[in-house]
């Protein structure tokens, strides 16, 4: 068993001893926590976790196993996975491998047997921080390396498609800007009949409009929205010309394009049971979220956008819409399959907006 030891070392010097899980080697990243009890494959393969180490606060992870159909990306970009107990023998008729095998096949380093709730409390109190999963017992050296580490700021470029492609449908034509999209966004649009053209993150407004879509979808993605300057300019040029719907990073980019600003949250929102209040209906929706940045509420006051949704737990901005143009966005994930489907109506709202706009497929 001694050879199976592995360590999670945090930037503040805290060390957790556990057991090897997943791929060999070591991996460093920003450590975050997710409170979901389900949707593990969806979470690990969400490219919004680029350069991050995912800590699952729920203690038993992998009971449903992993399959070939439910991944949100072909090449997951998370830096690591931390669990209390990794289920070795999943119980699900669709399962083809367990957590350890799935992490190995995707070259993701993990650690099991640690107190993930302790880690969650630490992040909640101190905020997200850098960390490393390693086999080395020289913790002082590891801490020194972690503190000196800096991350590249090109996460969106790394996870976006390089070439356009089409997922066909017979309904409204949607141009989807890929900032690190989850596949379920495409599936959700296709299920409603939409013809989806997935485009690279740096596509210009001229290129997008040449395709004559009925609407533009802005996907989720990793990193700081302020780093994606070319997308902000593109969105600014598109507002007023075509219906736009943004999710997560797409939501933040719409706000920045409108003149608002973003900030990094202490520990973010990551989980499948996040309550959000719809200000139009006064109803609370249970949502799936995964973001470490948010839009500054005060910065929206002098823009053309108004707030439509707020987070119940901390009153942060969860949705906005343009006061006169067909543009809206939400900070959470209406396409998510890890939790309730309270927010799926937003796709229908987008489709109605496109139909009302009299675009290409309605001409």
Automatic annotation (TrEMBL):
Any one GO molecular-function label of the UniProt entry: ATP binding
Active site residues of this protein: 248 (nucleophile), 333, 335
EC number assigned by the record: 6.3.5.5
GO BP terms: 'de novo' pyrimidine nucleobase biosynthetic process; 'de novo' UMP biosynthetic process; glutamine metabolic process; L-arginine biosynthetic process
Catalytic activity: L-glutamine + H2O = L-glutamate + NH4(+); hydrogencarbonate + L-glutamine + 2 ATP + H2O = carbamoyl phosphate + L-glutamate + 2 ADP + phosphate + 2 H(+)
Pathway: Pyrimidine metabolism; UMP biosynthesis via de novo pathway; (S)-dihydroorotate from bicarbonate: step 1/3; Amino-acid biosynthesis; L-arginine biosynthesis; carbamoyl phosphate from bicarbonate: step 1/1
Residues the entry annotates as binding L-glutamine: 48, 221, 223, 249, 252, 290, 292-293
InterPro entries xref list: Anth_synth/Amidotransfase, CarbamoylP_synth_ssu, CarbamoylP_synth_ssu_N, CarbP_synth_ssu_N_sf, Class_I_gatase-like, CPSase_GATase1, GATASE
Keywords recorded for this protein, A-Z: Amino-acid biosynthesis, Arginine biosynthesis, ATP-binding, Glutamine amidotransferase, Ligase, Nucleotide-binding, Pyrimidine biosynthesis
Domain Carbamoyl-phosphate synthase small subunit N-terminal: 4-134
Main function: Small subunit of the glutamine-dependent carbamoyl phosphate synthetase (CPSase). CPSase catalyzes the formation of carbamoyl phosphate from the ammonia moiety of glutamine, carbonate, and phosphate donated by ATP, constituting the first step of 2 biosynthetic pathways, one leading to arginine and/or urea and the other to pyrimidine nucleotides. The small subunit (glutamine amidotransferase) binds and cleaves glutamine to supply the large subunit with the substrate ammonia.
Family affiliation: Belongs to the CarA family.
Subunit composition and interactions: Composed of two chains; the small (or glutamine) chain promotes the hydrolysis of glutamine to ammonia, which is used by the large (or ammonia) chain to synthesize carbamoyl phosphate. Tetramer of heterodimers (alpha,beta)4.
Protein name as catalogued: Carbamoyl phosphate synthase small chain
Lineage: Bacteria, Bacillati, Bacillota, Bacilli, Bacillales
This protein's encoding gene: carA
